[in-house]
Amino acid sequence: MRIIYSDAHERHVPKLDLVNGELGAPAEGPFRAQAVLDGVREAGVGRIEAPQDWGREYLSRIHTAAYVDFLESAWDEWAAAYGADAADALPLARVQHDMRRDRIPRSIDGKLSYFSYDIGSPIGPGTWAAALKSAHCATTAADIVAGGERAAFSLGRPGGHHAGVDYYAGYCYLAIEALAAQHLLDRGAKKVAILDVDYHHGNGPQSIFYRRGDVFYGSIHGDPSDEYPFFTGYADETGEGEGEGATLNIPLPFGTGWRAYEPALAHLTEATRRFGADALVIAMGVDTHKDDPISRFRLEVDHYPRIGAAIASLRLPTVWINGGGYDAAALKAGVPAMLAGFEGA
After folding, report:
1. Are 112 and 89 in contact (CB under 8 A)?
2. β-strands 22-24, 279-285: how paired?
3. What phi, psi does 191 have (nearest 5°)?
4. pLDDT digits (tens, 9 = 90+) for 96-136
5. 46, 144, 199, 312: which could form a disulfide with 345 (CB 3.0–4.6 Å)?
6. In terms of C-beta distances under 8 Å and separation of at least 24 residues, what long-range contacts does 29-33 make, across chains too?
7. Is 162 a known active-site residue?
8. Of the given ranges (84-98, 173-187, 189-203), which has the lowest mean pLDDT?
9. In 187-227, which ranges are E strands?
10. From the centroid of its chain, how far is CA 220?
């Protein structure tokens, strides 16, 4: 398997994170991609190569121009307002449903508030460069699969499944899973399925494709009644219009282990078969591991090869995209285990 990796992720170094009402050390950082890189190298599950440079114009296949412009310039505007040594850029407010969305504020504080979903996704001096290169990794992996190879793994950072058309959230800035799926469609696939096995619901790809019938989005995740992102990911969300029936959410309670996870995975793969996809995009995540510091499932490392094998049973060209997981040891062992399970099957 070809593994697409860029060390540009090291430029995104969050300084602070809001956890349990307190600012502290961030759960998300460069150690995450490094742990995965070390793991795949030691396991020998693939060969590592750099992504192609896709520029930024293709981002318009998913994102609005105004959002991309904001993301590219946000740190420079923040530094101009508060100094180059300022803390991470964070929003002051959130736009509510009864407020105006037709005007983008002029100040950087207003822009951050306009384009963000939460207050826990910091922007620093290297965030844009890292996010863009992460998107290049995902698109390169999709291009490899569209060219006829069975699978490729995008080892980028930051992740993407919480980013929407015009907002960032959940440590995600560009919707890299959606960009990969769209690239597969642009290269000739008629239908694509995004399977999300990250602990948190992927509000980004769901919202982007919710009214489209050419992309299936299916997710197993922590119940949003109790878990981030709280306002999306419920079982009754099944798509709208042409997309009716092309969304499947399987929310599970805190403490879920393999006994409950395995039938949910079988349900997800069977629904994918019925959809009739030509290719898969996998939003990975080993934040389902019992040792993850911010998640509440109870999977073990030896469960991840079984997830990989279940995905392999679909017998479809597959783009793997690095996602959640905030325990270094679980990342190092779990990601290559999932890929090995897929390759071995």
Report:
1. yes
2. unpaired
3. -140, 140
4. 889 999 999 999 999 999 999 998 899 999 999 999 999 99
5. 312
6. 30/157, 31/328, 32/157, 32/325, 32/326, 32/328, 32/331, 33/5, 33/9, 33/155, 33/156, 33/157, 33/322
7. yes
8. 84-98
9. 192-196, 215-222
10. 14
CA-CA distance, 227 to 234, in Å (whole number)?
A: 11
Q: Which residue has the tokens 């991609």?
A: 33
Q: Taking each helix axis as running N to C, give the angle between helix 65-82 and helix 127-146, from 0 to 180 degrees, rounded to the nearest 10.
A: 160
Q: Choose the catalytic residue: 162, 183, 221, 289.
A: 162
**Side chain identity at residue 331, one-letter code:** L
Q: Taking the CB of residue 335, how many other CB atoms lie within 10 A of it?
A: 29
Residue 15, C-beta contacts closer than 8 angstroms, at least 6 positions apart:
26, 87, 88, 122, 124
What are the CB-based long-range contacts (under 8 Å, 24+) for 221-225? Answer: 221/196, 221/249, 221/250, 221/251, 221/252, 222/251, 222/252, 222/253, 222/254, 222/256, 222/295, 222/296, 222/297, 223/251, 223/252, 223/253, 223/254, 224/251, 225/251
- Cα–Cα distance for residue pair 4/1, rounded to 1 Å: 10
